[in-house]
Amino acid sequence: MTADPTSPQSELVLAPATGRTFEREVVPGLADATGSGRVRLDTIARWLQDVAYADIVDAGLAHRGAWVVRRTRLRVESFPRFGEPVTVRTFCSAAGRIAAERRTSIAGGGAAVEAVATWIHVDTETLRPLRLGDEFNAVYGESAGDRKADFRLRHPEPPADAPSEPWRFRASDVDVARHVNNAAYWEPVEEGFWGAAEPESADLEIEYREPAQPGEARVLRTGSVMWITDPAGALHASLVGLVGG
Questions:
Q1: Phi and psi torsions of 223, nearest 5°
Q2: Among 60, 73, 92, 128, which lies 20 to 30 A Cα-Cα from 51?
Q3: pTM listed for this prediction
């Protein structure tokens, strides 16, 4: 059977019995939530990258290149809420020659979120792929086991007749990598919730293509798929999945 490219496919594996895990507590603040108190998807995406970086720093590997996210799946059974502390727990769930997969769970205060992201290791100067190496494997090899990180793209391309609407990335969306941060690509999803019933759950997967810069963009939607492009049609990201009311 062929997997459906318009639904999330990344596997959410269980935490390992042995191997490194890392966690930190987060208290959702004023800028993290909507008027109803629901923590936004872009906030959750930011927590994922922040705990991943904190883990790398704690492991003493922050000097070994940088990480570029390729794909992220978010399965939210219950959203975190403003002011209710949560524990963000993460571990390496797969590794390859130049890529690694990271699983993250968010729980506490009624929140139930599972996420998995594929990251590519790159040289900080050239931005070319960089081997993970023995130092990485010594820290994360046990939790990754024999699972291999798959960074191949699988979402469909946008159809030529897909309805589109304008979008704009802000200068404040840019991070230290000098392009729009991966969390900002979730903002068009949140924009679609405005004026509608608050979502109670979600299962969404995003793939990142060409990095965006501040300025004009387009959002295309067909069924359960959304694409973000530049005005000329170059694809920045695609997002598939469902939201529950």
A1: 60, -125
A2: 128
A3: 0.95
The Cα 181–Cα 193 span in angstroms is: 21
pLDDT band at 245 (very low <50, low <70, confident <90, very high): low
Residue 114's nearest CA partner among 44, 51, 189 is 44
Q: Can you point out the beta strands (E) in the chain? A: 22-26, 66-78, 86-95, 99-108, 111-122, 164-169, 201-208, 215-222, 225-229, 235-244
Tokens standing for residue 46? 């930011």
Domains along the chain with CATH numbers: 22-144 (3.10.129.10), 164-244 (3.10.129.10)
Q: Quick: pLDDT tens for 30-71.
A: 999 999 999 999 999 999 999 999 999 999 999 989 999 999
CB-facing half-sphere around the CA of 65: CA atoms within 13 A: 19
Task: Name the H helices within 74-200.
Answer: 133-144, 187-193
- Tokens read off for 122: 């790159």
**Is beta strand 99-108 parallel, antiparallel or unpaired with respect to 235-244?**
unpaired
Q: What is the 3-state secondary structure (H, E, C) of 88-123?
A: EEEEEEEECCCEEEEEEEEEECCEEEEEEEEEEEEC
Contact 165, 219 (CB under 8 A): yes
Query: Mean pLDDT over residues 161-175, rounded?
Result: 97
C-alpha closest to that of 101 among 174, 48, 178: 48
143: which DSSP letter?
Answer: H
Counting Cα atoms < 13 Å in the Cβ hemisphere of 73 gives: 21
Query: Residue 227 burial by CB count (10 A; 0-12/13-18/19+): exposed, middle or buried?
Result: buried
Average pLDDT, whole number, for the chain?
94
Q: Nearest 10 degrees: CA dihedral of 126, 206, 2, 15?
A: 90
